[in-house]
Amino acid sequence: MLDILPSLLAADLMDMGSGIERLLAAGADGLHVDVMDGHFVPNLSFGPALCTALRKRFPYTYQDVHLMLSQPERYIDTFAKAGADAITIHAECEGDVSGMLLHIRDLHLKAGLSLKPGTPVEAIADKLFMCDLILIMTVEPGFGGQKFMPDMTQKIRLLRSLGFQGKIMTDGGVNAETAVPCVEAGADALVMGTALFGSDDPAAVIDRIHALEKNI
Ligand code: DX5
Ligand code: ZN
Asked: Which listed ligand is nearest to 65 at the C-alpha?
């Protein structure tokens, strides 16, 4: 089953709680929390306090935390404690990527590895066995509302051809149209910001994507 994870970056910050309630009622499977340090990417966003607040208000909702940090190692334990269910680090970060992935699993969380558009799958081929999910960036990380990069779906096919059986997620510019090549290529989770928080009828968007899955 395809997981649909709203990216909180696109939420109305003055009304985030009710925006989330609306998307969970519409059929979203969890929440994607984008964490930015202003160094790995040229933007700042949320910190662990958001995960703590989410865990309090939505105790049973899956939290998928995407660390766009130069030094994620410094924050993994903090996000685990704050309520993350999955923590994704970037292949391009500083430090011992394998050590961090194993540490995330030691904390009994799902370990994810993300690729920026310019990073090939080959760069992480030796780490796939340590990963529960791979997050393919379909835009340059840093900002919501950008245009989907269709060539990135080749990475999904390559990952599947290498035998990766974990979750493959796409992130950036995903909507009901651009979801099609993602799912066709073998993605089984979609991060969607603008396309869900900006929609008048998110349930229709989610239903359309699940219908698509049945036809592939
Ligand atoms: C980009 C983030 C994405 C992004 C998705 O750095 O990782 O999660 O906000 O938002 P949309 O769907 O609006 O591109
Ligand atoms: Zn993200």
From this structure: 2
